[in-house]
Amino acid sequence: MCDCIFCKIIAGEIPSTIVYEDADCIAIRDINPQAPTHVLVIPRAHYANLTEAAAADPALVGRLMRACTEVAKREGVSEDGYRVVTNIGVNGAQSVQHLHLHVLGGVKLTERMA
Ligand code: 5GP
Ligand code: ZN
Asked: Which residues line ligand 1 (CB under 6 A)?
């Protein structure tokens, strides 16, 4: 078993607030929100980042993007607009090495957030 915080959240070993889930992913509230809505869409399968996931299972990436749109609708930010971000590697300032998509909304976003 890998020592990955998001794998532990998916396994229920670390508590989180789940706002959406399906066969591919869970969506949880970020512990340190950068906007009124800040949800992380996390695939159940462990991939280090988007580059790895896109190479191994590109169809999954599409389904994760769709899950982000579903989260935005449920959070009530779909009409006003929102942002989907994934950070990759050192220059992307990725801090958790398990692919996740940030869904940010509820405010007019300006510069880099999450
Ligand atoms: P990254 O910097 O890798 O793109 O984003 C990692 C995100 O995970 C950060 O926004 C951080 O606040 C969030 N995070 C880290 N640990 C936890 C945790 O244990 N629970 C939740 N809900 N979010 C976490
Ligand atoms: Zn993991």
From this structure: 5, 14, 16, 28-32, 40, 87, 93-96, 114
Residue pLDDT tens, the chain, 114 long: 579 999 999 999 999 999 999 999 999 999 999 999 999 999 999 999 999 999 999 999 999 999 999 999 999 999 999 999 999 999 999 999 999 999 999 999 987 566
Decide: helix, strand or coil at residue 114. Answer: coil
Give the ligand with the smallest distance to the CA of 9.
1
Q: What is the pTM of this model?
A: 0.96
Atom of ligand 1 nearest to the CA of 97: 3
Position 110, amino acid: T
Active-site residue numbers? 100
- The DSSP annotation for 3-51 comes to --HHHHHHTTSS---EEEE-SSEEEEE-SS-SSSEEEEEEESS--SSHH
